[in-house]
Amino acid sequence: MKNKLVYALLATLAISYAHAETTEESSLFNGFSTSGSVAFLTDYYSRGYSQTEGDPAVQGFLRVDHDSGLYAQLFASNSELDIGSSIELDYYLGYDYLVNDRFKLNVQYADINYPGADKFLPDTDYEEYSVAATGTGLLSAEDTLNFTFYYSPEYFFQTGKMLRYETTYNYPFAEKWTAYAQVGYNKFSSHAAYDVLWATDQEDSYYDYKVGGNYNYNDFIFDLYYVDSNINKALSNADDAVIFSLTKAF
């Protein structure tokens, strides 16, 4: 099933690319659009911990959308997780459903991969499913509030089920300027699983948060934010941090 989804994603990307490069488009491919970005970050900090041990990261993102709401995505980044792999490569398939002009629902499948990871370690790759709801125009015409639930049946290092509840709020406070805040709660299968992942068996869950703002100038996005979590303060990669990123969208 996993391989079939990956092949379907790659096929969709190939079809869309061919569509974009062809001058005389066939009606069969009408309705497809592509977008993407390249980003430089001072740290790849995700869900409460650094995946590059505080070092910079370069990331690429490619997305193909269809007018029906279906989409496929690719994401790649360097990583430093001491697992024998120096790259993260993720595949996504999803569907956006516009309830009305102010409310959207989303379902998504994600396949998270670390190519070249040490085969003597427990499996580092995992699958994740999510459902999300996004509302627009709560306090201003363009602000957004998003709630997302993530579920992994077999998380990183084969540590069993993982649940994540995430809330994000974006508020455009001036032309091209946006402030945002995000809070996430992460629940793992057991204290033993938490020990494998975060080097302590005193917990089985943690929270993380991010607050910051960005400025968009001609599709160059300048982003500055503060991140922290209560994973395990004895771990250096879970320290709080101030991160800057520069993204070019296309």
TrEMBL record:
Keyword Signal appears in the UniProt entry: yes
Signal peptide: 1-20
Matching Pfam families: Gcw_chp
Keywords: Signal
NCBIfam families reported in the protein's UniProt record: gcw_chp (TIGR02001)
Protein name: Porin
